[in-house]
Amino acid sequence: MTAAAQSETDAHWMRRALAAARDAAQHGEVPVGTCIVVGNVVLAVAGNRTRTDKDPTAHAEMVALRAAAIEARNYRLSDAVVYSTIEPCVMCAGALLQARVQRLIYGANDERAGAVESRFRVCDTDFLNHRIEVTAGVLEEECREIMQEFFRARRQDKKC
Q: Which residues of 111-142 are buried (b: 16+ CB within 10 A; e: fewer)?
């Protein structure tokens, strides 16, 4: 696949993750979305559900990984490509490693808690037995904007 075709494919699937992030925001969740694909087949799409499920592990990536593993009938997702709107945290990056995903594509960095490039380098550390190919910055502005809008509105609500 050419670089231009790969870029368009990545943008296509990231739009699915963005739709999940928007849906999460409408339910009062922090707007992070994840889409997991093998080839051209979607295994799972999920948004954050921590508040809805009252589960601190129900980040979009974790929810999508669980659903994808069920769909694939295997906890190993070695051919999977994961699209996340925001750089995964330590927990989610670790789960991606445990699932042995092939690629991670994310939109915007999480300067505060990102565990892929911003704060830690969990996905390509040399002391673990698996590494994930990472592409950052796909639809970065859209991914960043949805988070900024959510927290801007939240701060505004607290002023009332």
A: eeebbbbebeebbeeeeeeeebebebebbeeb
- Each residue of 119-133: pLDDT tens digit? 988 888 888 889 999
Of 8, 61, 145, 149, catalytic = 61
Cα–Cα distance for residue pair 38/27, rounded to 1 Å: 28
Active site residue 117: no
Beta-carbon contacts of 44 under 8 Å, excluding residues fewer than 6 positions away, are: 34, 35, 36, 63, 64, 65, 66, 67, 68, 71
Beta strand pairing status for 103-108 and 133-136? Answer: parallel
The per-residue DSSP string of 107-147 comes to EE--TTT-TTTTS--GGG-TTSS---EEEE-TTHHHHHHHH
pLDDT tens readout for residues 101-154:
999 999 999 999 999 998 988 888 888 889 999 999 999 999 999 999 999 988
133-136 and 81-86 strand pairing: unpaired
pTM of the model: 0.93
